[in-house]
């Protein structure tokens, strides 16, 4: 297996089709089938290929500033981590999370952040489950239009500390869209 980092604007048509196929397979009924992002394009991705150069897994990453209880924090958001059905339960998702950890070394990042329905993988890889009252820009994912501002407590958040900063519960302003 080979992991490749690719900047979003460098993805060509063939790779777009491969990513789109994987995302549609993994997020069948919820993922828009005409693009390779849900609400907004990530800054970059890690892609996993086998020896035959077939795409096995992917994860999008989004770097931004957020406001946690009045304090600005730098967050690398993990978006749409997925593994092809045929290759699941082989450690590939954990391998991607490890690659993200390696990427973060000596970078100006305070936390990794993601949303998860099933938290087992992330708990096993050093993430913790948190509850915060979140504020975000609501986007209609089908029409790509702004719906307003969302504000509610979220219990599906998971974080991993990268810096010496500690995560606190309370208000989290995404200063943008929700992953």
Automatic annotation (TrEMBL):
Gene3D superfamilies: 3.40.630.30
PROSITE patterns the record matches: GNAT
InterPro entries: Acyl_CoA_acyltransferase, GNAT_dom
Pfam families in alphabetical order: Acetyltransf_9
Domain N-acetyltransferase: 1-163
Protein name per UniProt: GNAT family N-acetyltransferase
Record organism: Psychrobacillus faecigallinarum
């Amino acid at each position: 297996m080979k992991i490749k980092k690719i900047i979003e604007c460098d993805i060509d048509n063939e790779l777009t089709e491969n990513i789109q196929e994987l995302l549609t397979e993994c997020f069948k009924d919820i993922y828009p089938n005409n693009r390779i992002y849900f609400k907004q394009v990530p800054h970059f991705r890690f892609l996993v290929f086998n020896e035959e150069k077939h795409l096995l897994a992917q994860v999008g990453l989004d770097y931004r500033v957020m406001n946690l209880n009045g304090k600005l924090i730098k967050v690398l958001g993990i978006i749409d981590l997925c593994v092809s059905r045929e290759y699941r339960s082989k450690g590939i998702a954990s391998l991607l999370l490890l690659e993200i950890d390696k990427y973060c070394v000596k970078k100006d990042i305070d936390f990794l952040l993601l949303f998860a329905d099933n938290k087992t993988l992330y708990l096993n890889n050093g993430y913790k489950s948190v509850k915060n009252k979140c504020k975000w820009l609501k986007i209609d994912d089908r029409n790509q239009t702004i719906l307003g501002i969302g504000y509610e407590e979220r219990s599906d958040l998971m974080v991993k500390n990268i810096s010496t900063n500690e995560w606190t519960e309370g208000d989290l302003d995404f200063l943008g869209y929700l992953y």
